[in-house]
């Protein structure tokens, strides 16, 4: 990485275990041909990630670098993110290979997130993975980012024993969908947001409260100091038929509530208790809406074997608890991936590619172009 631009927590030339999340497995002692390792790259937003999984889904090594410059700017700047991915990938891939005690020549298959997401980052990551695949005469699997999130709970190391069909509530900064997962490659979108994604709403409300960006974790922490019944905020679309979401009106209600406290905008900071009560009330409203939509979705999916939450906002404990109660009321298990697999990561990308291979697909999608929009309905199974 050049010295003029270091957007990461730690420069790639000085990576240590504290800078990268590593996961190792004793399976590395097995002969490499038995592993059939797959290397995946994720660069759809502002996290640069690489992971290597064995063909059976065992995690051999993984690494994630999160960019920090965007916090100063109040949000992700696509051009900066893409350049940072380009700077980081070579060293990150080599470090992950080193941790897995493998070389590039040992990799049987390459995969990369090809959409949806920020087009610059998608081009950088998928092109890098394609280049490695072409140089080594290996197949390349183009992975749909949404599909990767919703298949994550089936990762063998998580021990969920999750069977099709199951219902997934995908909740992140860029996506908010309710999906019936029928089998690998077959998904029924039951509903989605008609305006903002839930994660986007969290970040914007956090900014209103002076918490900076990314605001989701900071808002959740502040909410622990407040009362979730302090303010009667709206629950958009709650009680209506269908499984769609809407968070724009909720954001507006929070903005107006803050204006009553500081109508001129002259205060440098809102009173701590007021901000905490607003945070808690907002968080409860979002959780209530998600739970209500999950109830509707389960009514449309009577054969669902489980209720799953995935995506970055799935890390929110209040949301998890609300959905867990819904699952319990229907007598089905609830599952949420561990926090590190809720946010963007390459393990989920690798596993999604492996799920396709296990399902009998034979993808070699070297010509598949990156695309900022890629609905699940347009993810066509690849067979010979």
Alpha plus pi helix count: 12
For the termini, the CA-CA separation is: 40 Å
Low-confidence stretches: 1-31
| Name of the CATH superfamily of the largest domain | ATPase, nucleotide binding domain
Q: Strands across the major sheet, in which order?
A: 3-2-1-4-5
Cofactor: Fe(2+)
EC number: 2.3.1.234
GO molecular function: iron ion binding; tRNA N(6)-L-threonylcarbamoyladenine synthase activity
Enzyme class: transferase
What's the short story on this structure?
With about 375 residues, this protein is of the alpha/beta class. The chain has helices at about 30-35, 70-75, 80-100, 120-135, 145-150, 200-210, 215-225, 250-260, 270-300, 315-330, 340, 345-360; strands at about 40, 45-55, 60-65, 110-115, 140-145, 165-170, 175-185, 185-190, 305-310, 335.
